[in-house]
Design goal:
Length: about 375
């Protein structure tokens, strides 16, 4: 039996934390139950993969059934990335549903199992032991490594494309700090990309590097994995409901304009003036969950027309348009000596923000100063 090393310890801790977090996410109350289940499944599948680093502690005597189970477990590595991608879709778009068509994501896993049937699943224990003696140089295993990395590149690229679309829809239609959702997903995609990049280097060194170099690379991957799993926990504790999404059927403003051009549709200045008057007198921006659809209903306008009015004619995203009003409201309060006792936290909630970080970011972008600096300068 091999001695317990840093890779083994990192594998045990990562597996335990991932499974514990999967249980937590599955049990927590949330509007996005599909997202929770998908992310929990992603964690469980990764935990099974991490377990490869310490399996030898429990299975020391080889037998045919055990080898088949270990091979089947290793091939589960084809499933985390599809589930990860579906998770991205489910968080980004509130109208996402699991459909039969999503089963095609399982095809690589099925194909890999079919490829391994002749020389792995149907062979006896002695034949398997001979194969495992030169495991990494078997054509099927080389195919396994290459296809997994290609799969990761495809799904990560698709994830970034989906996230970019969702962010644009959000900015044009929502005003709340749900933007944190997209920051989390971007970070998740980025860190996952880095992890797979490091894993690619590690697997390349398996074939062209020295044994010691590969061992170091494997240790780095194990520690990287442990760090990311711990980061998952911190994020899950901060966002226990795992977010809400946007409607994927919403059209972007530039697409609406293209349609309207063909219909010879025009937006008039009086509509812009009516919008500005409504914003100044009714102050709908004080509602932290205000959306473009809500504002259109309040003004008895078509949400499509309002989208074009703001995103194209005023040349602003709805998110920035609403936040500009909120910041101006905050500036008035900060400059008012009568309200000097109000704290920054009280003010940000009063003007429609529900996150201190998003308020500070928006305020500095608009004024070039932090709220505290602005108050001192007035």
């Amino acid at each position: 039996m091999r001695e317990v090393d840093l890779i083994t310890i990192a594998g045990i801790i990562s597996t335990f934390i991932a499974l514990l977090l999967a249980v937590f996410i599955s049990s927590v109350e949330s509007k996005n139950k599909i997202s929770n289940k998908l992310f929990a499944s992603f964690l469980v599948l990764n935990a099974l993969e991490f377990s490869s680093w310490f399996m030898y502690l429990f299975f020391d005597t080889p037998n045919n059934l055990l080898h088949n189970l270990l091979i089947a477990k290793d091939l589960l590595a084809y499933l985390p990335m599809p589930i990860f991608y579906l998770y991205i879709l489910s968080v980004c778009f509130s109208d996402f549903r699991i459909k039969w068509k999503h089963l095609w994501h399982v095809l690589p896993y099925l194909i890999a199992n079919l490829i391994l049937i002749p020389r792995f699943y149907l062979s006896n224990t002695n034949q398997k032991l001979e194969l495992f003696a030169d495991y990494n140089n078997i054509p099927e295993i080389i195919f396994f490594h290459i296809s997994l990395h290609l799969q990761a590149i495809i799904y990560l690229t698709a994830g970034f494309i989906v996230l970019n679309k969702a962010k644009n829809i959000f900015l044009e239609n929502y005003s709340s700090n749900t933007i944190q959702t997209y920051k989390w997903l971007f970070q998740l995609l980025l860190f996952t990309s880095l992890l797979y990049g490091v894993a690619l280097i590690k697997n390349t060194l398996k074939y062209i590097g020295e044994g010691d170099v590969f061992k170091i690379a494997q240790t780095i991957v194990a520690l990287f994995v442990l760090g990311i799993v711990c980061w998952y926990v911190l994020k899950a504790l901060r966002y226990p409901n795992l977010f809400s999404g946007v409607d994927s059927k919403i059209s972007l403003a530039h697409n609406l304009v293209d349609v309207d051009k063909s219909e010879n549709y025009k937006l008039y200045n009086n509509e812009i003036q009516r919008l500005k008057h409504y914003m100044a007198t009714e102050k709908p921006y004080l509602n932290p969950s205000l959306s473009l659809k809500n504002l259109a209903e309040q003004m008895e306008m078509n949400s499509r027309d309002l989208s074009i009015l703001i995103n194209q004619n005023l040349n602003q995203h709805f998110f920035d348009f609403i936040n500009d009003y909120r910041i101006r409201e905050a500036m008035d309060i900060l400059a008012n000596p009568v309200k000097k006792e109000e704290t920054i936290l009280e003010i940000l909630y009063e003007v429609g923000f529900n996150s201190k970080s998003s308020f500070n970011t928006a305020f500095k972008k608009h004024t070039g100063k932090t709220p505290t600096e602005f108050r001192k300068s007035t």
